[in-house]
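Hi, here's the filled form for the chain we discussed.

Project: internal
Contact: R.S.
Residues: 315
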Amino acid sequence: MFGLERMRALLAVATHGSVAAAAEVLHVTPSGVSQQLGKLEREAGQPLLEPHGRGVRLTPAGKVLAEHAEVVFAQLAAARSDLDGLRQDIMGPVRIGAISTSLHALLPPALARLAAKHPRVSVRLTEGEAEWMVPAVAAGDVDLAVIESWENYPAPIVASTSREPLLTETTDLALPATHRLAHRKTVNLSEVDDLPWIAWTEGSRCHHWLEQTLRAEGLDPEVTCTVGGYSTQLALVAGNVGAALVPKLIHTRPGSIPDEVRIVTTKPVVHRTIYAVWRTGADTPAVRAGVEALKAVSEQVAGGLVAADGNAFRP
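And the returned structure, exactly as it came back:
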């Protein structure tokens, strides 16, 4: 009754909020999307969109049909996954996006494990942040993402995606070795009121998280350095430029902490969880194999570090 391409256009408008955004995701022109929606309205026999401000929004009928479209495409993806599962060999491309702190610790061994078990799976890996990777997964531009989510600043959840926790870890305070608090094992964040802060690039979720965490402790943080990469942040701490909050995962490898830096635990304890995220209904055998490899490596990483640092990690 309803054409699949027309249903796909409606679902794209419902997901991304406008005809223009839907056209960009579908790699067609806005007029092409409008034509598909016009045909779908004629098939439905009632309006599916209505003007809203400078754009459009779904009518009640449009919302109902969009919900059915999501179910239809999830079932079609599941059918493809089941057919692929009949093959003895797991194969095909997997586009993976990962945050930088998981790249060095989790992705190399996970990809090595994946290649050893499933040599016909081809991987394309991109570094990025949760704020663009989760929408990319929902849009079908990334198959599997590895993201971070702090307990006090959770990562966005998109209804059309699924997630699997890989590990939960603490975030520690990095101080210059000469700082008055550097000899302590634990420091209340509210005590660090005499140093500027080093953060990720302005506008990123990591930057907002740092400011929110410090303001919750009564601080008015002065962020003087915004750089991507915790190794660079630690180098700046070593140069007595300021303080930084760094996840446990980034500073556990040998030689990762400069001699001029001291790492101390914080009060309150700040946790973050690393998740694998994929599009619901698009968990192909290759994507599932990638998730399984990430889970296996995460359990090894977490298990190997718990003995060295108490509750720093939980798989």
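Let me know if anything looks off before we file it.
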